[in-house]
Structure formats: C-alpha cells, structure tokens
C-alpha cells in the first residue's frame, strides 16, 4: 500500500510500499517518509490517482503520466512493462 499527496505548490510526494516503483521516485525502495515524485521537466501536478501497484497524475498543462506496475496494461503506455518514474500516457 502507498499514499500520495499534493502540496499547495503543486508538487507531489508519495510514501509507503514501492516494490513496483509506485512511489515514482525512480527506485523500488519503500519509504515511511514522503519522497518527491520525479516530475517531468517544468511540470506541476494538478491531480493524482492511485491504484494498488501503480499511480497516475495529471499535470497542470493537461498531460497524464503513470508509473509503477505495468501488468495488465495499467500504465496506459501500450506496454506491459512497469515504470519507476512518471511515463506519459499513450493517447
């Protein structure tokens, strides 16, 4: 299980289990303290949505990124592979 939150400055942080990269910090190291999500360059987060083994976020410029387990195509990137950092949604 993991949790994520947004700050007033539109930065995103996650903590908890990270065995599938669902914290989005580029690692698979779990953390009891909030860690910053690897945001795309010049991106600010507007909204986050969490699954059990993955996370997705909407940026203020309208792009959707997902990270974590890619099983069953849950990242929406056209692959079954996971991502340790935010990966753009394939539209």
Report what the structure shows:
- The chain has 91 residues and is mainly beta.
- It is 0% helix and 43% strand.
- The strands form 2 sheets. The protein has a 4-stranded antiparallel β-sheet with strand order 4-5-6-7, with no helix packed on it. Strands 1-2-3 form a 3-stranded antiparallel β-sheet, with no helix packed on it.
- The termini are far apart.
- The model has no long low-confidence stretch (mean pLDDT 93).
Strand order of the largest sheet: 4-5-6-7
- Helix count equals 0
Secondary structure category: mainly beta
Radius of gyration: 12 Å
C-alpha geometry: globular
Number of DSSP-assigned strands: 7
The largest sheet, given as strand count, sense and whether it forms a barrel, is: 4 strands, antiparallel
Distance between the termini: 28 Å
